[in-house]
Specification:
Layout (H helix, E strand, L loop, with lengths): L1 H32 L19 E3 L11 E6 L2 E9 L9 E6 L6 H15 L2 E5 L21 H16 L2 E10 L1 H12 L4 E7 L30 H4 L4 E6 L12 H7 L3 H18 L6 E6 L6 H7 L2 H10 L41
Parallel strand pairs: 1-2, 4-5, 4-6, 6-7, 7-8, 8-9
Antiparallel strand pairs: 2-3, 3-5
Helix pairs in contact: 2-9
């Protein structure tokens, strides 16, 4: 009896150790089998569209209704954000949104994703880093980084292959520095553009062949391979949006030549460019297709324009018509049918940027 008691006493510490180890190991095993938590829904958007981005390897299967962060298969340094609606990408229109120098590509993708879902549109937001694309606003002049227009073409080719989206002609939007890129890409590659929308560009390339690029469309040694055909780019419908309170000079290019040609504020320059484009269309016996809208109470902020200036409604309205006119594509299912009237889109507190934020949004 005494020997048995001594054996139990010796085994008791070992039993306690086993119990402790089990308590440590089982929760870990349980956690490894738990299903991933669903993204929190935002009641303010009245949509199930996920706002968080997902980092994916190039070979990973594509998810719908998620903002996906991807890298080009042929150049892992080049990233972009992608949103595929629940109706799928096959045959869907392709909407491209381009950030300003704050490199807030994910913010663009997140705030426009609800519209892409509603209209059944594949969304692409390229990420032009300062290191690789220091001159992306002007398409990437010689010695100033990669040709940003060529990079976008590579992204579109990959997205078309991955999703089956209709990319022969895209719907192109840009804000601030992205608006500079968007209108110059449209003028340089009009055959690729169905419609374009320009949000608060700092300055413009005018349809003036007597001025060298980027001030005009005349030849430039900085980008000798670039050629412009007014008879083609003047046929592209372009809508220009600027906030009526957008009078900040922060990150705003100024020079005597530029001020004389275009004005000293973003809305002055936008008005002059629209007038010049419409006059050029008339000179080519074409219908003027460039329009201008000034939105009261809006400063130079993409987020404010989206939340308070209904920029998403304005852009998708000129691209695809009124929301009730958006039709599901044959054989791909209906687009989301929730009512967005009175929406105020909100951005999550933390979003990815391509580089350190700058002063221009």
């Amino acid at each position: 009896m005494k020997a048995a008691t001594m054996r139990r006493q010796r085994l008791l510490p070992l039993l306690l150790l086993c119990v402790a180890m089990t308590a440590l190991v089982l929760p870990r095993a349980a956690r490894s089998w738990m299903a991933p938590a669903l993204p929190a829904s935002s009641s303010s958007t009245r949509s199930s569209t996920a706002s968080a981005s997902t980092s994916l390897e190039p070979s990973a299967p594509l998810q719908t209704k998620r903002v996906l962060r991807r890298a080009l298969r042929d150049d892992s340094r080049q990233e972009y954000f992608l949103y595929i609606p629940s109706s799928g990408g096959q045959g869907a229109p392709l909407f491209v949104t381009v950030h300003g120098i704050s490199r807030n590509a994910e913010e663009h993708a997140t705030l426009f994703s609800a519209y892409a879902e509603r209209y059944g549109v594949v969304l692409v937001a390229p990420c032009f880093t300062e290191k690789q694309h220091d001159d992306y606003q002007r398409l990437g002049r010689t010695g100033r980084g990669q040709r940003a227009d060529f990079v976008l073409d590579s992204i579109l080719a990959e997205v078309t292959e991955l999703t089956g989206a209709a990319a022969a002609k895209i719907y192109l939007f840009g804000f601030s520095g992205g608006a500079q890129f968007a209108h110059r890409y449209t003028m340089a590659h009009p055959e690729r553009i169905a419609r374009a929308a320009i949000g608060a560009a700092g300055w413009y390339t005018f349809p003036d062949d007597q001025r060298p690029y980027p001030y005009g469309i005349g030849p430039s040694p900085e980008l000798p391979s670039l050629h412009f055909d007014p008879a083609e780019f003047l046929r592209v419908p372009i809508a220009v949006f600027v906030g009526a309170e957008d009078s900040t000079n922060e990150s705003f290019r100024r020079s005597d030549e530029l001020d004389r040609q275009q004005g000293v504020t973003r809305f002055e320059r936008a008005r002059h460019w629209v007038a010049a484009m419409r006059a050029a269309a008339a000179a080519h016996h074409l219908e003027p297709l460039v329009t201008y809208e000034e939105v009261a109470g809006i400063h130079h902020s993409f987020r404010q324009f989206m939340e308070e200036g209904q920029l998403g409604d304005r852009v998708f309205g000129v691209f695809f018509g009124r929301p009730e006119a958006a039709k599901p594509r044959t054989g791909t299912g209906a687009a989301a049918s929730d009512d967005r009237s009175g929406w105020r889109l909100l951005l999550p507190a933390a979003v990815m940027v391509c580089a350190s934020p700058g002063g221009e949004h």
